[in-house]
Amino acid sequence: MTQPKSLKVRVVEVIRETADAHSLVLEPEEGDRDRFGYRPGQFLTIRVPTTREGGAARCYSLCSSPVRDEKLKVTVKRTVGGYGSNWICDNVTEGDVLEVLRPSGTFTPDTLEEDLLLMAGGSGITPVMSILKSCLHAGTGAVTLVYANRDENSVIFRDELIALTREYGRRLTVVHWLESVQGLPTAEGLGALAGPYTDRRAFVCGPGPFMDLAVATLTGLGMPHARVHVERFTSLSTDPFVDSEVVLDASAGVSTVEVELDGQTTSVSWPRGNHLLDVLLAAGLDAPFSCREGACSACACVLLEGEVTLDHNEVLDKQDLADGLILACQAIPVSERLKVTYDG
User: Fold this and answer.
1) Can you give the residue ranges of the FAD-binding FR-type domain (predicted)?
2) What is the mean pLDDT of each run of 10 residues along the chain (344 residues)?
3) By Cβ atoms counted within 10 A, which residue in 103, 198, 280, 284 is the most buried?
4) Domain that holds residue 218
């Protein structure tokens, strides 16, 4: 049976985290719960009501942990001129139903057992919080969080972080950087805080300048670039909830792709000139995606056999491509037979 592309969630609680940040606690419809499995650090794409041409959709990270028996929770912080964030903070109340896509994203650790260095700025704490809680609850490693904010009142999850520090003792170290006290973060300051942890894997999320500074600082300290993971979000210019049509052109030919997804293997005809994601969705497969613009990596999968071209790519670097990663929303087949996996 073809799965519906979008899903519905009910808002069961709205939590005012700070003056400009709200958390939404969400509950899927009963029959959809198995489609909301997620990994720490992943996000939801939420449809925002609008009369704008092209619609409006925004990606918000899950701050809940999939291993702590917590309800789904996303945190939304207002931004100046931010259509989606301001609409949600002004309008969404308990009992509302939102349209979303299934959780997705690649900002997630491969294992919960290793020691981690987490660096967050402002609302960038959201996916980092999911990773932090999951590693502490289900793993055995140590976690250090460096968290930058304007002032003490801007610290999202302040009380929860205090409680977690008490619960996990020496396994969790939280270091706050407050602009009101220390000024803007500096390479020297972040380097002093991160220096003892360069043997760890790092996850970085926050405003662009903060992430750029953090990455430059970590790599400057000798941390291999492959161990530094960054989450970047961009406002979507198209509506990912709208179906894309698969165009059949007999003169272009048809490839065949074998797809490993959610533990099952399926062979699908892939008409040349069409993107892999559109073909999979049209075939009824529940392939993950978000932006459909080649800008978020939510649809990333591994090409095991064959060759493709990518129409657009803003997120995969040379090493990712060398490792076989492709973006399903931008992949066009070159070979007659291909094989991809989402389960690797």
Assistant:
1) 4-110
2) 70 95 94 89 88 72 95 93 87 94 89 96 96 97 97 96 96 97 97 96 96 97 94 70 67 89 93 93 87 84 96 88 94 96 86
3) 280
4) 116-231
